[in-house]
């Protein structure tokens, strides 16, 4: 199933409870068609570049919401009921292009070939290099104002002054 973003622009005076009810109704519609809602974002109040005229006036700001979902390609026909909702100024459904998810991603030969073969036989917890920093001794000096200074004993004195 492809990934879609549903952008919703609501009237600025719509209460939070009404927004939650609208999003839950949209989410139930997605789940009823065997889809999955992956993310919901709120952008708060946004100022519009031009006024949107509705029957009850002209709006120059609105509340922006984004719902990301994985649904079938015929889902856009299911959203036509949003046109009759008086809380919405505009809505837009955007499809992600050239992306693969789920079984499509696993079955691709390139996705598993390059990454999986590179790290399949390596031990992720094996350190190839030793940290030399652990073997060095440091000396800590305390000053009268409570600050401390850490110096490396193995480095000549002129290098410590440059720190």
UniProtKB/TrEMBL annotation:
Region (Disordered): 124-163
Biased composition (Acidic residues): 124-145
GO BP: translation
Lineage top rank: taxon: Eukaryota
Cellular compartments per GO CC: cytoplasm; ribosome
InterPro entries tied to this protein: Ribosomal_bS6, Ribosomal_bS6_sf, Transl_elong_EF1B/ribsomal_bS6
Example GO molecular function: structural constituent of ribosome
Protein name: Ribosomal protein S6
Database matches in CDD domains: bS6_mito
Biased composition (Basic and acidic residues): 146-156
Family to which the UniProt record says this protein belongs: Belongs to the bacterial ribosomal protein bS6 family.
